[in-house]
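Problem 3 from the worked examples.
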Amino acid sequence: MSRGQKIVWFRDRINEDDLKTQKTWTLMEMRSLLDEYLQRNNEDMDELKTKREETRGLSPKEELFVQVVETERKEAKLAGLDVPDLNNGLVVKTLRIWDGDVNSITTIKLTKCKPTDADNEAISADPKVQAIAQATGMVVG
């Protein structure tokens, strides 16, 4: 998925009613949002898996879709994905009002984030550890 489409997904998600009043996210909350993002295609993937098992095969477009989703999930677990830095209140504010114009996408600061089931199972709940992880961009397990 393109960088712009990913950022639009995060913008739309943080503007939903259950998150509309939240001003910033902790690293664990960002990881949970990334989990939601990575699971957005689960139904389609299940349907394609069933179709493949029934030996009907997949069209080239469907095969490409499966390959893109699997690659994105692997990349997220291994290196993390660039997601909007929701730990920064200014970035959250900018993202909420962003009109989707790709020319202004550079105004949205991104940070690497891994899903909660990545090799580093969980980030410490200690605020000091989270602050160090945020400042250095490192995932601390």
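Problem 4, a separate protein:
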Amino acid sequence: MSIIQQHTSASLSDAWRTINIDALDPDSSQNFDTSTLHPPLPEISEPEARQLNSQVRQLLRGGDPEGALRGCLETPVYNGGDAAKDAHMQTVIEVLQSIKASEMTPMLQRIYSSPGGNELLDVLMKYLYKGMSGGSSSSGPKSQSRSLTPQATGFSQFGSRPGAVNESTGAAMSVLLSWHEKVVDVAGLGSIERCMTDWRKV
């Protein structure tokens, strides 16, 4: 066998393709636990979420809508069951609907200029998108669980007229869209990008 044939058979072997290059790289994800990149999030149960929501509603009834909004945004339910997330989502929508349109921008500016305000508006953006996507149980029609009482006219007393659910859903969507516009005006388009790329979901 010539020297050229020996060199060719040794150098053209494809055994190098089976080497795991990532295992040799100290910065590779195979050499450390990637879960350490995500800090642990506190788990919030449904009773804890409802207790928090009652505190927020007390602030709202006391005439402090900004404090109520801050209370919702400072304690988002990232790690919790669907019931806890839905309960908190309902409270957020309730607070947003109670704030006048003329108060939206000044309130958002005060929150944004405060320490950690950028993060709070990003949390608000997450709840806005969840509300617009129908992620909360409050955005859909609810089943009528109470019994129907017959009236003297022969008709049944059925709570609300047909189409009222769609009208309330449309009103809630209008409020969420108005808030979305104001948040973008104050925090910029970067708030949308951070909301879409954040691994923490409400």
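Solution to problem 4. DSSP finds nine helices and four strands in the chain. The two ends are 70 Å apart (CA to CA).
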